[in-house]
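DATA CLASS: polypeptide
GOAL: derive structure tokens

***
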Amino acid sequence: MPVSDENIKQNLFFYFVLKLKERYYAINKTETKLNRFHVLKMLFIACVYDNDLINWLWGGNFDNFYAMEKWPVEMDCYKIIKGLKERGNSFENTINNKELLEGAIDFYKIDKKTKEKIDAWLKKIPHFLFSKDSSYLVDFTHNFNSWKKAWVKTKIYNINIYPSVINAYPICNNDIIEDGKY
């Protein structure tokens, strides 16, 4: 049975989260309780600092960002988070329990090169961001032109793109790539 793009992206997303948690620990030397806000903002920041996350991964690209009031969000990953809740488990419970998090990943379906690339991408995120709270990360992500341009369009067009998401507009991947050049 072929693996769908959604399953590939989910696998890569949870692998990214696992490695993100490991990076938090390596930098802060303490266990950090992450939440969806930290994870989705850091995913966007990682995409800005290394555009390969947007266009390199076969079938699992993180390339579906939308500007929302408090953050840029990768909508497919947001749906993965919401899907956990619908199945009776919270994203925070999953990601803050190593056994549950590792159980959500099919390590055999992620090749060695992809694992190495994800590890390298996380090292490009500035260290100081790993000690910041969600509020700071909101402000930080709002400094990127890609978010600003899409947010202006969100306010102009007042688009509701997902049942519980009010006012979101797609962020152009080329704009994210441009952010990474500065």
Summary: The two ends are 43 Å apart (CA to CA). The chain has ten helices and three strands. Residues 55 and 61 are 6 Å apart (CA to CA). The beta strands are 65-68, 71-74, 169-170.
